[in-house]
TrEMBL record:
<feature type="domain" description="Deacetylase PdaC">
    <location>
        <begin position="36"/>
        <end position="138"/>
    </location>
</feature>
<protein>
    <recommendedName>
        <fullName>Deacetylase PdaC domain-containing protein</fullName>
    </recommendedName>
</protein>
<dbReference type="Pfam" id="PF11738">
    <property type="entry name" value="DUF3298"/>
</dbReference>
<dbReference type="InterPro" id="IPR021729">
    <property type="entry name" value="DUF3298"/>
</dbReference>
<dbReference type="InterPro" id="IPR037126">
    <property type="entry name" value="PdaC/RsiV-like_sf"/>
</dbReference>
<dbReference type="Pfam" id="PF13739">
    <property type="entry name" value="PdaC"/>
</dbReference>
<feature type="domain" description="DUF3298">
    <location>
        <begin position="159"/>
        <end position="235"/>
    </location>
</feature>
<dbReference type="InterPro" id="IPR025303">
    <property type="entry name" value="PdaC"/>
</dbReference>
Amino acid sequence: MKHFLTLLLFLLVFMGCEEDTSLIFEPMTFGNKTCENCALIEIDIPKAIGNKSIDEVVNTALREEIISILKYDDEIDVSTIDSAILSFQKEYDKLKSKFPEESTKWEATVKGTVTFENKQILTIRLDYYLFTGGAHGYSSIRYLNFDKTNGKELGNKELFKDIEAFKNLAESKFRAEEKIPMTSSINSTGFMFENDTFYLPENIGFTQEGLQLFYEQYEVASYADGPIVLVLPYQEIKKYLPQAFF
């Protein structure tokens, strides 16, 4: 009994000493004041506040992505989310001054969600919708992947040990899901891969279900087809990922 209590005490102390690597977030909301002449802007993203070395990297990456989504004129110097909102509103004001009869408001909504986190990796997904006139708006997502241990944002190539080997696997899974024969052209059923060659999308992110490959509208198919999404379970792709990730 004495040995059991000693072992139990050791385990409790050991577990208590383990470092909690989870990031701490608080919701951060931005928007435009509701008024008759204001564009509709709603931004809801997580802000890392745990004083870890990765916090500033995450918050900076989120800020830059929001700016790139809202910034309408590349010649305007925009460095904050508030100034990006202001630039979006100014462009809407310019349109209203040229076409006073235009009654449809511009819209911009962005929502950020943590889709995956373990000791090494953090992934945040940004879902956004933009409407700046025309027949319809545009909605899409962006994945931001971070290496928590090394305190940096990861590019797509850094997600894999061998990106070419992973691409070959992804193509076979893509063909199977979209019913494209392996002996046929990748575009034989109506896709629009450049040079008739399969490639990975710009948006790749970790989720609870697996690694998601997200092809935006127009990226490899027509607008009517919508986004093309492929989710690869981790048990099928683990050998292609750096060992430290899992």
